[in-house]
Amino acid sequence: MDGVPTGMVVFVCVVMAPVTLLMWALAVSEWRELRSPPKPRDPAVHYDLRLHSWKEAPAALHRWQEGGPVGTGGSAEEDVRVAEILAVLDGKDADEGAGVHTRLRLRLPDGEETTLHTDVRSARNVRAGTFLPVKPVREGVTHVLGDTWATAADLSGHAVGRVLLRHRRALGLIDDEAAEAVDGGRPEDADLVEVRPTGEVRAGHVEVVITARCGDHGPVTVRGLLRPEEIATARHTGRVPVVRSRGGRWELWPAWF
Amino acid sequence: MSTHRPDVGEPDAFMLAEHARQVRRMRVRRRTTLSSAALTVAVAVAVWTGTDLSWLWILLSALSVLLVLACASHLGPQDSERPVPDTPVEAAVVVGVEIISWGRADRDGFHDVRVIARPIGSDTGQLVYGHLRFHADRGCRITAGMLVGFRRHPTMRYLVHVEPHHDPLALLALRDAAEGVVPDRGGADAAVTGVVEEATVESVVIGDRPDGDRWATTVTLRAADGALLTDSRPRLPEELGGFEPGRRVPVVRGGHAHLAGRTRCAVLPRTP
């Protein structure tokens, strides 16, 4: 006992005290929650969360996931490729609350498949079928888990948006005028009136013509390509995010990832 | 389009019984941990006043015990399985997938997923949901546009029992029955005699007028022998993701010509 320096014991106590208080506060709040009667779940609540992340502008990847070596001085956008997530595997809690360990199986634009390890803090943008900007691991660097690609974690939010728009244009998921309108724009909420498919299906996206009412602007009609779950999100929240181009045309806000 | 969400309804007897069980567990746990915490503090004070041990070590020991007790107070979810109802099986289109045990796979490595679906012929507000499982090593393969079979819980508005295994031909028969379609597959029961072949999607044409949220959809496909096949039925836009031109899908042929030169067929639904 005497061998351990007092300073260290004080330090441990200072760290443990707030943690102990927090754990007791969590226990008390759990007890309080049980006081109210149980309520059946409304499945449409899922779509409220999906709409919330749909309306967000693309954020830098390091805001919601970690993993892969971060480049020095920022990677060039030219190195960045947009992969499609084929499967999200594992899903085990990481230590220290850093997120959830996942292994992503990706398909790169040239068709090659690869695996990438990452810790995800918010799983909303990480689902099979979504897009993920990645960059090759630097030459001479060996990733500890054998990955050859890493998430483009050092791109700014705006750069991530530009990269994703370029990818969507290449796949024919967005036209030039719409891409210009959404780049750096902010969406407005419109009340959904009708969703009509056109028959076009491309890259897992379904083309729809959406009629909506946008506040003071009255009825608007937008045409765009959405994934099936995004169509369901608009339908079961009754709202769809739209943005106005400089030319005055209304465009559908894309789901970015 | 209505944004009004129907009321979720009242909790049924099963939910109330489970809640009561959880409350009883909580009361016992709370009594135990609170009295142990009080005892810890009392012992710490006694040791401090009664002996000449350093107060710092007493504090450290007391904090450690209190932290362990706080963690032990946490109950965790209690998942008793509802009994499977004996209501008839119905078909529904998957329109949402939500992984609910992310970060907490069970001992066998399985995650729980909440599947949200629209029963065939339902209105916008008539969603149902149920639970399925998938292995963490394989990832979740369930996507919007798949068909699932489910049985309703008579006492719950939205919660249903989703069948864990699915036969596409049986689901197709359920769908036809719900849509009032008489399957024209040589008069025989497709589930027993349907010959499944692969065809390539060529185009999708949408009708002019909606039927609720659905639109009359005609999918034209090219079979391996060059024949043109068509599948016409009302579909949600959420179901069209699997009909990209060039995609190969399994179909069952119909019995007679629908339009000149084209044979009626049914595209087999994708299932989890």
Ends apart, CA distance between termini of chain A: 56 Å
CATH architecture of the largest domain in chain A: Beta Barrel
Could you state the order of secondary-structure elements of chain A as H and E? HHEEEEEEHHEEEHEE
Number of domains of chain A: 2
Just give the CATH class of the largest domain in chain A.
Mainly Beta
Condensed summary:
The complex is a heterodimer of chains A (257) and B (272). Chain A has 257 residues and is an alpha+beta fold.
What does it look like?
- The complex is a heterodimer of chains A (257) and B (272).
- With 257 residues, chain A is an alpha+beta fold.
- Chain A has two domains: 42-57 and 187-257, no CATH class; 61-155, Beta Barrel (OB fold (Dihydrolipoamide Acetyltransferase, E2P)), CATH 2.40.50.
- Chain A is built from five helices and eleven strands; from the N terminus they run ααββββββααβββαββ.
- The termini of chain A are far apart.
- Helices cover 27% and strands 32% of the residues of chain A.
- The longest helix of chain A is centred in the N-terminal third of the chain and has 28 residues, at 6-33.
- Chain B has helices spanning 13-50, 55-73, 168-179, 190-193; strands spanning 89-99, 110-119, 128-135, 147-152, 160-162, 196-211, 214-223, 228-235, 248-257, 262-267.
- In chain B, the strands form two sheets. Chain B has a five-stranded antiparallel beta sheet with strand order 3-2-1-4-5. Chain B has a five-stranded mixed beta barrel with strand order 6-7-8-10-9.
- The radius of gyration of chain B is 28 Å and the shape is elongated.
- In chain B, helix 1 runs antiparallel to helix 2.
- In chain B, strand 7 (214-223) and strand 8 (228-235) form a beta hairpin.
- Chain B has 272 residues and is α+β, with helices and mostly antiparallel strands.
